[in-house]
Amino acid sequence: MSSVAVTKKKGVGAVIWDYLTTVDHKKLAVLYLFSGLLFFAIAGFEALLMRIQLMFPNSDFISAGTFNELLTMHGTTMLFLAATPLLFGFMNMVVPLQIGARDVAFPFLNSLGFWLFFLGATFLHLSFFMGGAPDAGWTSYASLSLYSPGHGIDFYVLGLQISGAGTLISGINFIVTIITMRAPGMTFMRMPLFTWTSLISSTLILFAFPPLTVGLFLMLVDRMFDANFFDHTMGGNTIIWEHLFWIFGHPEVYILVLPAFGLFSEIIPVFARKRLFGYSSMVFATILIGFLGFMVWAHHMFTTGLGATANAIFAVATMAIAVPTGMKVFNWILTIWGGSIKVTVPMIYALGFIPSFVAGGVTGVMQATAPLDYQLHDSYFIVAHFHYVIVGGIVTAIFASFHFYWPLFFNRAMSEKLGYWTFWIFFIGFHLTFFVQHFLGLMGMPRRVFTYMEGQGWDLFNFISSIGAIMMAIGVVLMVLNMLLSIKSEPLNCRDYWGDGRSLEWALKTPIPFYNFKQTPLVRGFDPYWIEKQEGNPEGMTYAEPLGDVHMPNNSILPLIMSIGLFVAAFGALYHPDGESWSVPVMVIGLGITVLAMIVRSVKDDLGYHLHAEEIIEIENELYGKGGNK
Amino acid sequence: MLNTKFTPQTWPEHPEQATHEGKNKYVGIWIFICSDIVLFASLFATYISLRNKGPAGMQFTSQELFELPLAFVMTMFLLTSSLTSVYAMYHLKNYNFKGVQLWTGVTVLLGLGFLALEIYEFYHYVHIGFGYTQSAFSSAFFTLVGTHGLHVIIGLVWMICLIVRNASRGLNLYNAPKYFVASIYWHFIDVVWVFIFTVVYLMGVLG
Description:
The complex is a heterodimer.
Chain A: H1 12-21, H2 25-53, H3 64-98, H4 107-126, H5 142-145, H6 152-180, H7 193-224, H8 239-272, H9 279-292, H10 308-336, H11 345-368, H12 370-376, H13 380-410, H14 416-442, H15 459-488, E1 521-522, H16 528-534, E2 542-543, E3 550-552, H17 558-574, H18 583-603, E4 609-611, H19 613-624
Antiparallel strand pairs in A: 1-2, 3-4
Helix pairs in contact in A: 2-3, 2-4, 2-15, 3-4, 3-6, 3-8, 3-13, 4-6, 4-17, 6-7, 6-17, 7-8, 7-9, 8-10, 8-13, 9-10, 10-11, 11-13, 11-14, 13-14, 14-15, 17-18
Chain B: H1 20-50, H2 62-65, H3 68-93, H4 97-127, H5 136-166, H6 176-206
């Protein structure tokens, strides 16, 4: 591979081929980011339609059946196909840079994880055009979904199975990357907090996704191959689904929120211009949350009838999670305390996040009280609670990080002015939407209803809630506009855009070359880039090795082919219950493509290639002018 | 990396972890096994809760169905294959490529023996009317044991690919981790079978 290929203008076809075959963590991060945004927009649009339907009592804007499809797809898409890939995008981009690595441990698997996710997500969304979307809620309880007519649930099961496999693969990849790929001196207790939360979150993926895989598989064979896991007339038990789903489902919440915590733990010290307060207690709290996250799944099933003893145990365990979470909140506040605060768009998101998330946490502890939960169960109070956690915690973290990390991704900055507008419109809209839903729930409005009668005192709050939803939508549109406008702006070509970066990702000049660090950095303490800046190091870092040849992985189309194989096989399985004669051959062909691609991958040597020191110098001169990345 | 020739003296102590890629693979397979343990744990939990559950008048129960002698022979096949896999790794450390190929080959043969018995067992059950869709018990049994069987098939295809691919090229630091990782995976399958033997067959017949 010649070095000029990096900067030479390429044709559209070559660029597309490059992205289809790439194994570069930065390009995959961009792919994750855009596909995550796409599904975020789709799911947000679904939410908007639901809120318009609920704006007035007895509305007939959309039908009850469509409403069920919308609420199912909104929840499923937001959690699996929007929040997860967006956070994976940041993890892919930032974690290898923060630990001073050239790439992730398994670049090939990184690409495979993305394509599995993307094709699984596409498969799920094809349901809209092929006979109806899933309509049994994102939890898809077996007693409901087993008898749902049409193919909606089949799309849910197969789509999530494929995309879930991708998520699991990426999770394994991140764990190995963080264990084996750290630069010299980057001990575990010097790792930035986002790397820590990515590690713990990946560990949760590792243990939480297999139960989902099993649950989905049981549902698959029950619906498509006449197995009897959930059918009580054949000796099955529908509660098995609830357990398997929530053993996955509760950790899933922490899988998403821990990286969000990590992102804010990166943002707050930069703009408070102060070292993160209580670093080791933050690490401890992260691990504790991850551990306790697996002990609490049955608090989603208080009303299932597990008995008072089980409910009491799970109630106490659930309340215990508030302790490490509280530690984190205090640490953020104490990081800001006494700092030389610079208010920017990422920082204002962080400042808005703390009270919003605490509100969501407090209602969580309320629901942990099992007797009270009997009252709150399946009401709008629950809807308000988890949106406070998810929007107030995860979405604000993602929006803040768009602004914060945009320079690393695209060598451009998003507009601060437009960013403030977005923040205020979105933030006020968010509280308008969900704050009143607490009261709707306490007044007895059940969740997942497609309409309500007038005169129950729900009209005003529902109206306010819908206005808020429209404001949130405007906020998102502004943010996307901001992103598009940034493309037109001048390239930054700078290092440390925010001026107060602390960890290694800021030590690189943008645009970041595909091999990241030309020499592996030497980490001399916590916040390594800050240390080097304090000591007046002109290069921004100390190196652990002389400039030499760099080993890079080869691009490959095989991940895409493997994913397409499963995509094809899923269609065969989907139409199997209809008795189509072609369903089994299609399944065999699809799985055959995947297996064949795996064998090719296994048998063919893939040693990567070496980038010579002279080529690196040439690339750096072209990117940054004479003198390279200094 | 492919062409570096070694002697038993220059061959590293831990060839599977001598390169960075090898070390990644070594850590990666252990992490993967962690998640596979949870997969099997979920299937075991499902099986235990659905054991002997079926529609009214179900004819098959675990006491009548399972035959310990067959399960014992299958266990012996798989346990012995783990031992031969250890022999292969012993030769891997000593840079004896012929030994690696030979003992990996014996492992494959024992695995095939196990697989043949399992296919016979499944065929027999279906033949006497204990099919996949017959009851919740049958679905849970075939899913748990069948998932293990699928793991065995994957392991066999993997090892056959390794033997065929590397037959003419000898040991190097590129393929040593591949043999090692396949061996760890094979041991894991073996451990899962020990649990299946205990929970499904022993507890099924005796408990």
